[in-house]
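Q: I'm writing up a methods section and want to include an example of the input and output format. Could you take the sequence below and give the corresponding predicted structure tokens, formatted cleanly so I can copy it straight into the document?
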Amino acid sequence: MTDEAAIELALEQARLAAAAGEVPVGAVVIVDGQVLASRHNERETTNDPTAHAEVLALRDAAAAIGDWRLSGATLAVTLEPCPMCAGAALSARVARVVFGAYDPKAGAAGTHYNLLVDPRFNHNAEVVGGVLENECGALLSEFFSAHR
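A: Here is the clean output for your methods example:
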């Protein structure tokens, strides 16, 4: 599966989030071209501050394979992961993180921090940013414009 196709799937989830009144961020976890999990933000719905799309998708993927180690997995997300989500990806041992829009407020995959490739951690992940960046950014901009 191409990175663009993975982000398209994540965008579908982000649109579901927007329809539910959630910040439109979607994430998918892929291993060997197969989607193990796809989720969107649910913080407002669940009143859970950790219910970011990435964390939920990583939990579902781990449950699907019966192992917390997601070695070989790609996490594709519409917005650059925050420190919590980048840390979750590292803890899950994902191989790659692919994202759409850069996050100037909380980006931890290159914008403010670069947690996923920090050599001080015992695991690193390949990072690919800016995939379908315009589409991902536009969805976020439209959402926030409508909610201000």
